[in-house]
Amino acid sequence: MKILTVVGARPQFIKAAAVSNVIRDEFNEVLIHTGQHYDENMSKIFFDELNIPKPDYNLGIGSGNHGKQTGTMLIELEKIYLQEKPDLVLVYGDTNSTLAGALAASKLLIPVAHVEAGLRSFNMKMPEEQNRILTDHISSVLFPPTKTGVYNLKNEGIKEHVYNVGDVMFDAVIDFKKLAMEKSNIIDRLNLYNGKYILTTIHRAENTNDIHRLENIVSALNDSGKEIVLPLHPRTRKYIDDYGLTFSDKIKLIEPVGYLDMISLEMYSEKIVTDSGGVQKEAFFMKKPCITMRDETEWVETVENGWNIIVGTNENNILNAIVEFTPERKQEDIFGDGKAGKKILDILKKEIYNK
Ligand code: UD1
Ligand code: UDP
């Protein structure tokens, strides 16, 4: 039995790291990298560090407008699907690679399994929201990571073949935390002290592509007076340069880091300030207060549990949260038991063999 997995962007490599080696125990997995992310520190470093199998295909699609990027992926993926004839296509998350991977399969009547299904921001302006809704509605097996994911799918009429297996990113943190502690020396390299700095990431299109939102974020970080580590996504670096924004010398702007360094930075931080989906969850796994610079989140349980606060991009709201936000409640079990990969394997076995 053959599973064809499609990945393309940074968070998908990390998700695949938690699943690929598990499903390879049972299935012949063919791994396709669309090439959506291609810089060494946005792609290769994850394959090397996390022992992800080398992609069988790299489509080298690269950056571009949504239509062109997604459409080119679709054309190239279809050729491979016709040649490889997989029993199922596996996709992760909500990027353009996810949608292209699912749509190319669905058109050829190949079943699609969607890991991280059912998440909604209810903001259709986000490319990710469009991608995830479309992908969910053409998937045959859906793996929502949370109860909210199951609920959202049910509300859209998707009730069959839906399995809340927990979150594969929780598996990844559990699998790689020890390795990060052994191998990463980023805390020393950057002269950081445990609990004495804020870790920030910014890359969401709605923040980078809007000068006012990005200006507010940069001002709040500058005015906080805190030591801040900011690994800059290439999208964000480009806009910061274009807008001519500058940072105070307490902000350490660094290149995107590998996953082991990132886990280390998260683990020893005081708080995490982000607009990333994955980093919001990792803040929760690491029991760090998370300040989310968006107007909504898909990870509503982390907010309800008091470990994540949604502040948008109002400068004062970000600043106040950096100074004051402190979770008060014990963490609830939101993301499963860290064995999502194994559960996905068991369910896929049943779904594929019983077809
Ligand atoms: C994509 C996903 C987003 C996800 C993010 C993870 C979509 C629509 N968006 O956003 O959901 O959260 O990945 O990081 O799929 N660039 C480089 N080098 C690279 C990759 C990108 O320089 O290796 C620059 C290019 O200028 C490019 C820009 O970043 O135009 C945006 O890249 P793109 O893949 O289109 O979207 P992301 O913002 O990375
Ligand atoms: N990440 C990383 N290096 C970085 C920034 C993020 O390894 O410099 C990891 C992070 O730990 C998480 C994932 O990338 O596992 C999140 O990806 P990103 O924020 O790019 O996308 P999103 O999760 O918002 O789709």
TrEMBL record:
Keywords, comma-separated and alphabetical: Isomerase
Protein name as catalogued: UDP-N-acetylglucosamine 2-epimerase
Organism of provenance: Clostridium tyrobutyricum DIVETGP
Keyword Transmembrane helix: no
A GO molecular function held by the record: UDP-N-acetylglucosamine 2-epimerase activity
Taxonomic classification: Bacteria, Bacillati, Bacillota, Clostridia, Eubacteriales
Record Pfam families: Epimerase_2
Top enzyme class: isomerase
Gene3D superfamilies given in the database record: Glycogen Phosphorylase B
Highest taxon, organism lineage: Bacteria
Domain UDP-N-acetylglucosamine 2-epimerase: 25-349
Enzyme nomenclature, EC number: 5.1.3.14
